C-alpha cells in the first residue's frame, strides 16, 4: 500500500491593506497550485476568490502606511478599523 500526502503551499502577503474585490474581506495570502504540484486552482486566502486590490497607495514593507506623511491625508481606514 502506498500513501501519498501533500502539503499545500500558501504564500502570505506582507501588505495588510489588500482586499478581495468580490467580498471586501482582507486578503492574507494566496494558494498557487504550481508551487505545490496539486490539481487545485489559484486563489487568495481566506475567501478563496481570485482578484484583490490594494487600498493603501503608499504602503511599504519597512514603514507601513505612509499616506498621512506622503499624501497629507489617509483615504482608507486602518485595518483595525474595518474589523
Question: Can I get a quick summary?
Answer:
With 83 residues, the chain is mainly beta.
Structure description:
It contains two helices and five strands; from the N terminus they run βββαββα. By secondary structure, it is mainly beta. It has one domain. It has a three-stranded antiparallel sheet with strand order 1-3-4, with no helix packed on it. The protein is elongated. The model has no long low-confidence stretch (mean pLDDT 84).
| Helix/strand class | mainly beta
Strand order of the largest sheet: 1-3-4
Share of residues in helices: under 10%
Mean pLDDT reading: 84
Give the SSE string. Answer: EEEHEEH
Largest sheet: 3 strands, antiparallel
Radius of gyration, whole Å: 16 Å
Strand % is 15-25%
- DSSP strand tally: 5
**Net shape:** elongated
Indicate how many domains the architecture comprises. Answer: 1
User: How many DSSP helices?
Assistant: 2
Give the termini distance in whole angstroms: 48 Å
Low-confidence stretches: none
Tags for this model:
83 residues, mainly beta, 3-stranded antiparallel beta sheet, two-stranded antiparallel sheet, 2 helices, 10% helix
Q: Topology, pairings included?
A:
Layout: E1 10-12, E2 18-20, E3 29-31, H1 33-36, E4 43-45, E5 52-54, H2 67-70
Antiparallel strand pairs: 1-3, 2-5, 3-4
Amino acid at each position: 500500500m502506498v500513501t501519498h500526502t501533500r502539503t499545500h503551499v500558501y504564500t502570505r502577503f506582507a501588505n495588510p491593506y489588500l482586499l478581495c474585490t468580490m467580498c471586501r474581506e482582507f486578503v492574507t495570502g494566496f494558494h498557487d497550485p504550481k508551487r505545490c504540484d496539486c490539481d487545485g486552482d489559484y486563489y487568495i486566502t481566506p475567501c478563496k476568490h481570485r482578484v484583490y486590490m490594494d487600498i493603501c497607495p503608499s504602503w511599504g514593507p519597512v514603514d507601513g502606511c505612509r499616506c498621512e506623511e506622503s499624501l497629507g491625508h489617509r483615504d482608507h481606514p486602518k485595518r483595525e478599523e474595518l474589523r
